[in-house]
Every structure is written in structure tokens, then in C-alpha cells.
Write the C-alpha cells for this entry.
Amino acid sequence: MIMLLKLVCFLVIQAIVQPLIQIGVLNRRNETSKVTAELMLSYAKEKFEGNINLSLETYDNNPLGLYDAVCRLADKGVMVVISWGSSGIVIREADILSQLHIPLISISASSPGLKSSSRNYLLRLAPSDSHQAEVIFDILRHYNWTR
């Protein structure tokens, strides 16, 4: 929650300093979320009426493809990147973007392994798998379900 607040403050300050906010979207080639990303881009451009620029970068599923996509986004001056990748992919994306001090918002990654002091710029929206397991266990215990 603190990271989300910091990110919102950062974007508000940037919007004052720079009227055009640059947001990047990472998408692996052949990933079904590409359609979702493209719809989000067109919706955001329509709603924000020119105050926001969204850049979609599609990359091949290999480290070099990811590095190239991140470099293209950094060259465009993005302030934040959004990703739909799984936990394994987001780990690689976050490791690269954290070194560049660019925040990464992960929509779906849920692995407990994402939490690391080297990924200070990662904000995940999905709860951790370990948190989900605790909740399931609490429900089972609350209702005294044993089978």
C-alpha cells in the first residue's frame, strides 16, 4: 500500500512538472493479454485526452528480447511500466526495471518469491500465493472442515 501511495504521489508530481505522463506496457509475443493491453491503451488515450502517452512493447520470450523492450521503453522516457506477465516473467522484468529506478506494476504475478529488497520498484496488484493459502486455511478451520 505504501508503494502504491508513493507511485501515485510520483505520478502527480510528474504531471505537474511534465504535462504528458509516459506509461509503458510490456507484453510477451503470443501472449493472449495483447488484446487487453491494446484495449487499455485506446481507452486510456480517449479518457485522458492527451495527458498520458501509453507505449506497448511486445518482446520475444527470451532475455535479449526483454532487455530490448525495456530499453525501448526507457528511451521513450516512461515513468512506470505495467505488466501482465506470470511471476517468473515479472521477476525478470522487475530485476531490470528496478536497476533503472522505473516502477513496475504487475497485474497478475502472485509468487511469494517476488518480495525482495532488490525489487524496490515492484508493485503487485495480486495477493501473494502464501497469503491466499493462509486465507484458505483460516476458512477451513473456521468451518471445521476436515475433508
About this structure: Strands lie at 21-28, 52-59, 80-83, 104-106, 122-124. The radius of gyration is 17 Å.
